Amino acid sequence: MSRALAKLFDPLVAWMAPRYQAVVAKELRKYGLRYEDLYDPQYDLDVDEALKRLPQEVVDARNQRLKRATDLSMKHSELPKELQQLQTPYDFYMKDTLDLVKLETEERLALGAGKPYERHLP
Amino acid sequence: MAARKALSRAFSTSAVAEAAPALAQRSFLAKIFSSGSRVNTPLTDELPGVSIPAHIPAPATAPTTKLTKLSNGFTIATENTPGATATLGIYVDSGSVYEGPYHTGASHLLEYMAFKTTKSRTHLRLVREVEAIGGNVLASASREQMAYNIDTSKATLPEALEVLADAVLNPKFQSWEVAEQVRKMEADVKNLRDNPQTTLLEGLHSVAYTGGLGRPLIVPEGLLGGLNADVLADFYAANYTAPRMVLAGAGVEHDELVRLAEPLLAGAPAAGSSAEPTSSYVGGDWRQFAASPLTHAILAFEYQGGWRDVKGSVAMTVLQYLLGGGGSFSAGGPGKGMHSRLYTRVLNAHPWMHNCTALNSIYNSTGLVGIFASAESSQAADMVDVLCKEMQAVAKGVPEAELERAKAAAVSSVLMNLESRAVVAEDIGRQVLTYGHRKPVAEFVSEIQGLKAADLTAAVGKLLKTPPSMAVLGDIAHVPRYDQVAKRFG
To answer: Of B117, B127, B128, B183, which to mutate for an interface test with A (greatest number of A Cβ within 10 Å)?
Structure first.
């Protein structure tokens, strides 16, 4: 029932989605970030695990982008226009690894194994 | 009715449970005041009403080894040993001899990476499936062969075969898993300093041979940084090809195993890119200083011929039992070997000798045969003197009684070991890789029993004509120089 209702809104979403993505991309370009740079490893431990599995160059590039964006934000400025045009905010580097981590977690829970990393209240 | 059910559940075997009513004849008071049942038959008598099922008789003829070669070159060899359990093993003609300079340590790492994530299963799933079928997995790397085994019961054989084939033929060397195993290897390699025998063997091989056998099996600490998933995948693709692999089974029916295994093994690549490595023995001296109260040394010679020379291997095996030896603080016992030459002539005579053991590392076409010793550092020079004297004494001749005892020990050891189906599977796998077929144990036993004193003396004489190899760890300054030791052997 809810699926049928959602399908009713598909044309509207299809019209809005590219406009929304363009607005988000513009903001990311100002700070020189990619979409996946916004994933916080302290919020989602799966992201932390995925970052541990990625090649070191990819993680280093991500950290450098985050440092540059932090600096720009602190100075209330943005990236120069020429550099903004070179940015690729929707170039995903973490998606496959993150999907694999989530699949593995599902399999662990299905087999009754439990996650190897979990947050505990002290 | 409920009481009878409770009684039958209290017994662990069905045979006894069927007899439960007969045992439930108790007095009125016993029924009220005691729970469970009380068996009143004395331990010297049979329980009444219990029927013991007939045991499965041993087969009329001893099982023989059957061999089939698949179209891609994969060999399947099995022996249907009696019992409820089976062992399957895949043996690969790959080892540290096939490593090039960029792959140093790949075989050692492949042992750690065995039975991890494959293309069809995650590591967790593989472990859980092996647990579910009640199996044990084991992987072992050596200089010329790799071994992957799974033990299981005969009932869960197809599942075990599928897990084994998947793990060996479809590994997915994930970079993070490889990195984790390299960290474990690093810890183990650092602890190797506490194991003088392994350290000495590694050093001995590096100086005794040039070529394949001179390459390290255990990766040196400095080369650990070069090991990663790409190196492993390269080495695997070049060496794990079907003509160089054997599926060995003990406790399995041959035709059934071939029927089950053919679709699983047909996917193995048929040709690789690695050439057969050559090794030549040169002999040499390896020394490492260690400030320890004990000095350890190996004195070894080349045994030309290797396993492929059956008569020579038999002579070397009997020599091993003849020399024997062990640690000076070991407790004795039947079969311990405390009447062997190194015990009676060396360990009993010199209290400063802590360990004196015969050692042999035999490969397909060559081998190292010698003696390992540990002594107090103040007696390091005497220790080497004793080793040289012992080797020369065997070359001069041994009393008949000692030789017969060594031959009997060798025969009994071979036969007792082959009672275990895990050892039978390993024997099949390694023999098929070395010889192309499995020689029946009766052949080896008759060769051992047919060995004469003259044959042994000739073999040892031939051994001592090759240049010696020495490896010393400890107080190396007081150990005689290599050329002085070599001069004693002419």
So the answer is: B128
